[in-house]
Design goal:
The complex is a heterodimer of chains A (306) and B (310). With 306 residues, chain A is mostly helical. In chain A, 81% of the residues lie in helices and 0% in strands. Chain B starts with a helix and ends in an 8-residue tail after the last helix. Chain B is globular. Chain B is mainly alpha-helical. Chain B has 13 helices and no strands. The chains are: A mainly alpha (306), B mainly alpha (310). At the A-B interface, helix 5 and helix 12 of A face helix 5 and helix 13 of B.
Chain lengths: 306, 310
């Protein structure tokens, strides 16, 4: 998988390269880093979330994690004003936003997971509607902003791989690496947590604490990917499902990196195809949405039959 | 629920809606009300009533309380149809566009029913999820086509239901909602029997296939009417029938009028609120309603069921 990613990355960087080499490589390099970061973060976060929720259909995107992030952004801009926010350095702003998101996610999804653990479909539906609610709320707050301030929010939350600045990228990359490391360290605990709360507790695992930690990591990864490119709902589902199919294991030490790699591969390959072959720029998110939706339906219907 | 109070609330809303606006009524007040505010108020009421009724019928047809037209991919399918018309025959009259939109909405709904047949009935919460994703897939397809044909803005005009563009001459199609409502009232009992499921309905002597087809046609027409004139409006068809059935039980014929009135009041209230929050600027009514509707939906999911769902 890593090999495939390397080849794809090289292709992405070198396809149809003409001078000025340095400039183009820098541009493409930045874009590639963003794609890999986002794909990896989304893939890994989804595996974690599915384990914690005991459910193969849920992804952080579906239950509105990214909507929560957008809402936070919007509220921050509304509270501080666009100008005030622009004076805060990128790195600090990012850390603050992520911190706020983590706290909110813990409160919201911690309750959700504990309340509805027994009734899986109700939990999915609650998550989905929660996502709708959060999106509606952020839409509403956005409508109240000045046009100038709105554009600040829009800058931060619209899915596009074409503008990623170096500073943000570095912070996000470091952050993501840290989150990934922590997730891998948690892998054995997650393996046990995946057996369900009762079993895990019987085996001596502090289940609630593991769930909370996992939620923190998920919030961190989601904020990385949303801050970089904005929301893509079904990417995680695609990555995690493919990873589970290929690896055929429950060991998170394998699943998390696999899912992260696959997420990155999907994005890099998709972007390469669209940009180089079809000459389209922002259609990738739509296509990912389409196929992710199909995978979701297939999973639901297959689950029904078994 | 005291009927008198409800009517009073509705009248108050209508008066408020007529009195609200960026322009003052001191000059040409009568003309302004006649050309802009009265149509706007009527459009909100009609759209709300139509969506609530569509929700009732859909819920009976799929025997699931948690489904409504916007959770079955119907508006997205109608959008696809409208996009196709715009690309193939851009000069078509509004009536033709309506028909195409209704036809594609119907096709979208048939697709959803085919899916619904494969989802077990024991788990009523699964169907809305499937419907949402199905709608998402159709929506992505529509976005893709619009994007490659440079019609994104055109698509955007329906993305969010709002009434700021409604003036005299731009909404009259919505009066068809009233005619469809009358039709529904006539066949209310049959629709109720539909909700018992196919075997039961047949044994009671109902022509199941024909009644179901009639119900679906009515729903797709209602959806298309509202979509073309004001845009997508999620959750009305879910919230209005569910709350009314919690308050008044499940006599469909007795409830049809109340449900329609309730849906109408809800949408008008959302529109008035959207006009008030940031006066004189406006927030689309659909945005206001999405927040409210999603909240009610969550409550419906977690409240103790008044009666068994499904």
């Amino acid at each position: 998988m890593a090999g495939v990613l390397a080849v794809l990355s090289a292709l992405f960087l070198l396809w149809g390269l003409r001078g000025p080499y340095g400039f183009i490589l820098e541009l493409r390099g930045g874009k590639l880093a963003a794609l890999i970061c986002v794909g990896a973060a989304t893939g890994a976060a989804t595996v974690l979330f599915q384990t914690v929720a005991m459910n193969r259909l849920l992804t952080p995107g579906i239950v509105g994690f990214d909507a929560l992030f957008v809402l936070m952004q919007t509220l921050l801009v509304a509270a501080l004003g666009g100008v005030g926010l622009a004076q805060v350095p990128d790195a600090l702003r990012f850390v603050v936003e992520t911190g706020v998101l983590m706290a909110a996610a813990m409160a919201l999804f911690g309750v959700l997971l504990r309340r509805d653990a027994a009734d899986v479909t109700r939990m999915i539906l609650t998550g989905v509607i929660l996502g709708v609610l959060l999106r509606g709320l952020s839409e509403m707050v956005q409508r109240m902003l000045d046009p100038a301030e709105f554009s600040v929010v829009q800058q931060a939350v619209v899915a596009s791989f074409n503008r990623v600045d170096g500073g943000q990228m570095a912070v996000a990359g470091a952050f993501l690496a840290l989150a990934m490391g922590l997730a891998l360290r948690m892998a054995p605990a997650l393996d046990v947590a995946g057996l369900g709360r009762a079993t895990a507790r019987g085996l001596g695992l502090n289940h609630d604490r593991v769930v909370m930690r996992a939620l923190l990591l998920i919030a961190a990864m989601v904020s990385v990917s949303t801050a970089l490119v904005g929301p893509i709902t079904f990417l995680g589902l695609l990555a995690a499902s493919v990873a589970r199919q290929i690896c055929d294991t429950h060991r998170h030490a394998v699943l998390i990196p696999a899912s992260a790699l696959i997420g990155a591969v999907i994005l890099v390959a998709g972007q390469a195809v669209f940009e180089r072959l079809l000459g389209m720029q922002s259609a990738l998110a739509v296509v990912v949405e389409f196929f992710g939706g199909l995978v979701f339906l297939a999973l639901v219907l297959r689950k029904v039959r078994t | 629920m005291r009927p008198f109070l409800c009517i009073a609330a509705l009248v108050a809303l209508v008066v408020l809606s007529l009195a609200l606006g960026a322009a003052s009524l001191s000059q040409d007040g009568g003309w302004l009300i006649w050309v802009s505010r009265l149509p706007r108020t009527a459009a909100a009421l009609l759209a709300g009533a139509g969506l609530a009724l569509a929700g009732v019928v859909v819920q009976q047809v799929v025997q699931n309380r948690l489904v409504e037209p916007s959770l079955t991919g119907t508006p997205e399918a109608a959008m696809l149809g409208l996009l196709a018309v715009t690309l193939i025959a851009p000069g078509m009259a509004v009536a033709g566009k309506m028909l195409v939109a209704a036809g594609s909405a119907l096709a979208g709904m048939l697709g959803f029913l085919a899916l619904a047949d494969r989802v077990p009935r024991q788990d009523p919460m699964l169907l809305p999820i499937v419907g949402l994703v199905y709608g998402g897939i159709l929506g992505a397809t529509a976005t893709w086509f619009a994007w490659s044909a440079d019609l994104m803005q055109y698509l955007g005009t329906w993305r969010l239901g709002e009434f700021s563009g409604v003036v005299q001459g731009r909404y009259e199609w919505l009066w068809a909602v009233a005619a469809l409502a009358a039709l529904l009232y006539v066949v209310a009992d049959r629709i109720t029997i539909l909700g018992l499921g196919e075997t039961q309905a047949r044994s009671l002597g109902l022509n199941y296939g024909r009644t179901r087809a009639l119900g679906l046609i009515v729903v797709s027409m209602l959806t298309a009417l509202v979509l073309v004139t004001v845009g997508v409006f999620p959750f009305v068809g879910l919230v209005a029938p569910n709350l009314i059935s919690r308050w008044r039980g499940d006599n469909l014929r007795a409830n049809l009028g109340v449900t329609a009135l309730f849906g109408a009041s809800l949408v008008l209230a959302a529109d008035v609120l959207g006009r008030l929050i940031r006066y004189p600027y406006e927030i689309p009514a659909a945005t206001v309603f999405a927040v409210f509707g999603a909240g009610v939906f969550l409550w419906l999911l977690h409240a103790r069921p008044g009666r068994a769902h499904g």
